[in-house]
């Protein structure tokens, strides 16, 4: 099996008490069975508190938060379970976050989640570099369509190389990514259609119809999704901020592309994923303020909520707010 990771993956270290947000608030923590068994055995007052904090919901064990905060999150920002019982007593969610893995059977891709402030800082500050790969024993025969995966891998490599080209405006990067994704999408769904080799100039045209639609409409769409934090609610209510493209956006586009492009092998819908990338960049740009905070908050509210992700991918496919001509105009 081949395991690959972004060049910056191994540099992540949790900054714990220095974290400007925390993964110990706002979310439910899903407990794996092995951890629940261990928590049932912990003696003393800490064991009693652990057991009373476990709730079962739809057959899953969840650690109950108190007013949106993990009850084991100490005032100094450190975790009481880790400090008193050791790292091996953390559940897999807490031990692994913000590291995630996409397992395709014969290969696995590791990523950092943008929803962690320190991971967001690393993602946005790391220069473009090829992914690092290594072979390890194990793996399973893949269940995916091999020719579709080969096309997605080749096309992702092309677009990632293009994203590294210096001096190209962010609007042009995103337009190219979206129009190229449509071409690959067509080939996934109509195998008789063979895409041309990637040529950036093929996607540089500007003759799009003038369809009415605004960034405010897109903010209104997001306001109808699940909302986790008051800050996100306030920012959505305040509406879009006029803003230019920050020079770190190519790194952000690379993150989204590495994370989502290959997932189209599950349903052959690459176009909606590319639109999701464009929509995400537009939202993060028009949130305004500090880019790392805007990107991290966006990810926490959207990428870490499966219902919101489903709504966004469905919306990218069919919602009038996300018609291609509107998105392409808003990129300027
Ligand atoms: S959000 Fe990231 S940096 Fe902050 S406490 Fe969690 S893992 Fe550490």
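Sequence proposed for the structure above (332 residues):
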């Amino acid at each position: 099996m081949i395991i690959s990771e972004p060049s910056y993956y191994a540099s992540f270290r949790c900054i714990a008490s220095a974290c400007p947000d925390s993964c110990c608030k706002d979310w439910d923590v899903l407990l794996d069975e092995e951890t629940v068994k261990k928590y049932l055995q912990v003696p003393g007052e800490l064991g009693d508190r652990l057991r009373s904090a476990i709730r079962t919901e739809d057959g899953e064990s969840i650690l109950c938060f108190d007013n949106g905060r993990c009850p084991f999150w100490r005032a100094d920002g450190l975790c009481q379970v880790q400090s008193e019982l050791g790292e091996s007593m953390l559940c897999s969610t807490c031990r692994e976050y913000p590291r995630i893995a996409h397992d395709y059977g014969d290969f696995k891709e590791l990523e950092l989640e943008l929803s962690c402030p320190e991971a967001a800082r690393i993602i946005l500050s790391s220069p473009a570099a090829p992914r690092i790969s290594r072979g390890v024993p194990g793996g399973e025969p893949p269940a995916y369509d091999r020719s579709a995966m080969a096309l997605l891998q080749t096309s992702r490599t092309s677009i990632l190389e293009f994203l590294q080209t210096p001096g190209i405006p962010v609007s042009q990067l995103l337009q190219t990514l979206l129009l190229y994704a449509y071409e690959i999408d067509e080939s996934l769904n109509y195998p008789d259609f063979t895409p041309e080799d990637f040529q950036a100039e093929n996607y540089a045209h500007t003759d799009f119809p003038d369809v009415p639609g605004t960034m405010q409409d897109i903010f209104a769409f997001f306001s109808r999704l699940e909302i986790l934090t008051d800050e996100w609610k306030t920012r959505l209510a305040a509406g879009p901020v006029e803003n230019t493209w920050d020079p770190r956006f190519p790194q952000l586009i690379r993150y989204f592309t590495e994370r989502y492009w290959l997932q189209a092998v599950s349903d052959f819908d690459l176009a909606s994923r590319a639109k999701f990338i464009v929509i995400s960049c537009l939202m993060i740009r028009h949130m305004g303020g500090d880019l790392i905070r805007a990107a991290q908050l966006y990810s926490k509210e959207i990428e870490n909520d499966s219902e919101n992700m489903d709504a966004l991918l469905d919306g990218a496919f069919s919602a009038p707010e996300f018609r291609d001509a509107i998105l392409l105009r808003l990129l300027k």
